[in-house]
Design a protein that fits this description.
47% strand, 118 residues, mainly beta
Length: 118
């Protein structure tokens, strides 16, 4: 056994688990979060999986560096003090550690992510 995990058709896969709401919502009611965490042997403490967010606004609270690939949906991310970045399905983002800003999700966003250990 190789230990390889395959999530077939990850843009539409079901079975995502409720993960509550963002820690710093900017809309009421706050958007709902769902996801699947994928354990990856040898990843050195990095976290990975599938994450989904319904429409709404919230502050990014993660201090870690993160790589994400948007599978579905659309929105904007506005880094603190900078212009908004339009984000949509097919885009890949590389967030440096300590990136702050605001997410505004217009269409439910689903992404594959890798969060780097601090």
């Amino acid at each position: 056994m190789t230990g390889i995990t395959v999530l077939h058709q990850s843009a539409t896969i079901g079975g995502l688990q409720d993960q509550g709401t963002p820690a710093r919502p900017l809309t009421q009611p706050p958007c709902r979060l769902r996801g699947i965490d994928v354990e990856l042997a040898g990843a050195g403490g990095n976290d990975s999986g599938i994450w989904e967010c319904e429409p709404g606004r919230f502050e990014r609270q993660l201090p870690n560096a993160e790589v994400m690939h948007i599978l579905a949906g659309a929105g904007t991310f506005t880094p603190t003090g900078e212009e908004p970045l339009e984000i949509r399905a097919g885009d890949t983002l590389f967030f440096p550690a300590n990136t702050t800003g605001e997410w505004q999700v217009q269409e439910t966003v689903r992404k594959v992510f890798v969060v780097m250990a601090m």
